[in-house]
Design a protein that fits this description.
Blueprint (H helix, E strand, L loop, with lengths): L1 E8 L3 H10 L4 E11 L1 H7 L4 E10 L1 H18 L3 E6 L14 E9 L3 H10 L4 E8 L7 E3 L2 E3 L2 E10 H14 L8 E7 L2 E4 L5
Antiparallel strand pairs: 1-3, 1-4, 2-3, 2-6, 4-11, 5-9, 5-10, 6-9, 7-8
Helix pairs in contact: 4-5
Length: about 200
């Protein structure tokens, strides 16, 4: 089984979800997020946040390949999206068959800290990232206000980075954001099997 993620311009999620569903997806969901490109790209576009939709789906290996081939044609047309897959039951194996030269890097930190993680990543070679807002649920960080549980808001950062710069990015974020301290956040990565779309990094 594979986990497929497609990061798309806002408004394109439904079209891609239909394609993935027709290709045999078992589960599909869609989130709103924001793309965060480098400062040079931001200045050219005169924006610092680009609205995105993040589609996630679970497919078997055969259908994942079919879906990626179909999504590639759509990604060429919109010219501003990327799709990638990872093994759903990845257990830390090295030398996975058909592994690409990329990793999917995830950072989960407190709200408003995500942009700091993105900046650190870009300083170390990352070209862009996608930011999703979420909520934490750990008991030790909940508080009570007017008899209601108040759960801390979180930033979830997703980055697609080449293997040769992934460790430097992870180390830099871990050190500069003090992720060794309790409740400061978490960083992890998954190997990517296939990538389609605009992802070239130098």
């Amino acid at each position: 089984m594979q986990l497929l993620r497609a990061i798309l311009p806002r408004g394109k999620g439904s079209e891609f979800m239909k394609t993935i569903k027709d290709d045999g997806a078992i589960v599909i969901t869609c989130y709103y997020g924001y793309g965060s490109a480098s400062e040079s790209i931001q200045s050219k576009l005169k924006v610092n946040k680009i609205k995105k939709e993040i589609v996630m789906a679970i497919l078997d290996d055969e259908n994942a390949k079919i879906a990626m081939d179909e999504l590639e044609e759509k990604l060429v047309k919109i010219n501003t999206g990327v799709a990638f897959t990872s093994q759903l039951e990845y257990k830390g194996e090295s030398n996975l068959q058909n592994e690409s030269n990329y990793q999917a890097l995830y950072v989960i930190v407190d709200r408003h800290e995500g942009q700091k993680a993105v900046a650190i990543a870009q300083e170390n070679g990352a070209k862009g990232a996608t930011l999703i807002h979420g909520r934490g649920s750990a008991k030790e960080v909940k508080s009570i206000l007017l008899n209601m549980n108040v759960e801390p808001e979180k930033d979830i950062v997703i980055m697609l980075v080449k293997n040769d710069i992934a460790e430097n990015i992870k180390d830099a974020i871990y050190d500069k954001m003090n992720l060794d301290k309790e409740n400061k956040g978490i960083i992890y990565s998954l190997p990517v099997m296939e990538v389609r779309g605009l992802v070239e990094q130098s």
